[in-house]
């Protein structure tokens, strides 16, 4: 198992009483609630958290893309990943991910990722996503076209990374006379590609195809749903005639570590519940607009994501396996038990969430590194890699 530190970079100084007067923190929350000095301070804190994770020995750091929301101040993960390419020394830099269908042209993404991969000396992980439904409201892009645009953009990016140019490309959505990438990626044939997903069966089938065998990631679901989606991925691989490796499976989950179980719940409770109730919460029609998923996938995703609309307490999240929380020993045991049962090769730890302060995040990182990550790497009963 490999361990990654992730931050969504939420606007944690958000006035929660004012936020409660609006339906969601996504798309329509008035930007008069943003303060530029607070924003500048938060970016400093969040970048320091990411660089610290490298020093603490995490295998990777994770950034992602969301637009017009207090939930995450990373409309351009490229900007943050570019900083990390120089500020970190050894860890992988995972962009999970760049929203392909929202780009005017995917060659811009191909170029940016190639630059970051080269500057970092081959430490980039490229995550490709369609972007959640809220992003389509922001840009006025038809979500019913997102699958076609995603697949065509993916194919063009991979060709641009791997084929000698110049060559012409004529597709349904993208057209160019010259594909001739400068620079080309440092890694050969290209950076690893990961596919975060809400559980679409079409995405699982596509990622597991033997032409790709991309690492599949699950987020913000009860452990029972995560297990089911992992089984779907492995079953898809079996239908294609191969056995999926643990390295093709990843799980993103909030984590909080303290000196005792009781203190961990007490310290994290207000911050986690602010994350769930004020930052993450959105109407389902914003998360999954009509046409975004097939009918079958919509039904499956709705069943596993219904908590996004509800006010989930930290106690409920822990019980449902949607969060690891407790002493180092407790969190270590929680992770080890799930790892043995579900065999995932990548654990993406959301060690900052909601209104969790910089000092609490720093302590959370340090306790996780010392009392969870380090012992798990030494535990012969849990298959992990440094």
Quick structural overview:
By secondary structure, the chain is an alpha/beta fold.
The helix/strand series, from N terminus to C terminus, equals EHHEHEHEHHEEEHEHEHHHHEHEH
CATH topology: TIM Barrel
Q: Termini, distance in Å?
A: 8 Å
Q: Count the domains.
A: 1
CATH class descriptor name: Alpha Beta
Tell me the fraction of residues in β-strands, as a range: 15-25%
Q: In the CATH hierarchy, what is the superfamily?
A: Luciferase-like domain
Instruction: Provide mean pLDDT, rounded.
Output: 93
Shape: globular
**Which sheet architecture does the biggest sheet show?**
8 strands, parallel, barrel
Radius of gyration: 20 Å
How would you explain this protein's 3D organization?
The chain has 386 residues and is α/β, with parallel strands linked by helices. The chain has one domain (2-378): Luciferase-like domain (TIM Barrel, Alpha-Beta Barrel). It is 46% helix and 16% strand. It is built from 14 helices and eleven strands. The protein has helices spanning 16-19, 36-56, 77-87, 106-119, 133-139, 146-162, 201-208, 223-239, 261-280, 284-287, 295-305, 314-319, 328-342, 358-378, and strands at 2-6, 60-63, 92-99, 124-129, 167-170, 175-179, 193-197, 215-219, 249-258, 324-327, 346-350. The strands form two sheets. An eight-stranded parallel barrel has the order 1-2-3-4-7-8-9-11, surrounded by seven helices. Strands 5-6 form a two-stranded antiparallel sheet. Helix 4 links the parallel strand 3 and strand 4 (124-129). Helix 3 packs parallel to helix 4 and helix 4 (106-119) packs across helix 6 (146-162). The longest helix has 21 residues, at 36-56. It starts with a strand and ends in an 8-residue tail after the last helix. The model has no long low-confidence stretch (mean pLDDT 93).
């Amino acid at each position: 198992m490999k361990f990654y530190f992730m931050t969504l970079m939420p606007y944690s100084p958000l006035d929660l009483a004012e936020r409660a007067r609006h339906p969601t923190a996504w798309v329509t929350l008035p930007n008069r609630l943003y303060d530029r000095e607070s924003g500048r301070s938060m970016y400093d804190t969040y970048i320091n958290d990411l660089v610290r994770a490298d020093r603490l020995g995490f295998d990777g750091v994770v950034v992602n893309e969301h637009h017009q929301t207090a939930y995450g101040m990373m409309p351009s993960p490229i900007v943050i990943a570019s900083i990390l390419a120089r500020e970190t020394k050894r860890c992988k830099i995972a962009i999970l991910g760049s929203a392909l269908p929202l780009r005017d042209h995917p060659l811009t993404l191909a170029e940016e990722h190639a630059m970051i991969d080269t500057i970092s000396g081959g430490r980039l992980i490229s995550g490709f996503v369609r972007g959640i439904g809220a992003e389509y409201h922001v840009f006025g892009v038809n979500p019913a076209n997102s699958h076609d645009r995603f697949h065509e953009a993916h194919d063009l990016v991979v060709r641009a990374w791997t084929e000698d140019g110049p060559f012409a490309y004529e597709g349904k959505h993208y057209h160019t006379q010259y594909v001739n990438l400068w620079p080309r990626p440092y890694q050969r044939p290209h950076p690893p590609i990961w596919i975060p997903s809400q559980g679409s069966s079409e995405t699982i089938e596509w990622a597991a195809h033997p032409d790709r065998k991309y690492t599949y990631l699950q987020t913000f679901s009860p452990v029972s749903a995560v297990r089911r989606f992992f089984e779907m991925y492995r079953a898809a691989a079996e239908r294609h005639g191969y056995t999926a490796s643990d390295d093709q499976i990843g799980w993103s989950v909030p984590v909080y570590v303290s000196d005792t179980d009781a203190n961990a719940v007490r310290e994290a409770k207000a911050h986690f519940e602010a994350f769930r109730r004020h930052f993450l919460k959105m109407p389902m029609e914003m998360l999954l607009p009509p046409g975004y998923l097939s009918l079958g996938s919509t039904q499956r995703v709705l069943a596993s994501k219904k908590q996004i609309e509800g006010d989930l307490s930290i106690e409920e999240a822990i019980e449902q396996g949607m969060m690891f929380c407790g002493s180092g020993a407790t969190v270590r045991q929680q992770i080890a038990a799930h790892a043995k049962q579900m065999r995932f090769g990548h654990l993406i730890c959301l060690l900052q969430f909601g209104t969790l302060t910089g000092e609490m995040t720093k302590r959370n990182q340090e306790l996780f590194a010392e009392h969870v990550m380090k012992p798990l790497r030494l535990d012969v009963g849990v298959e992990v890699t440094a």
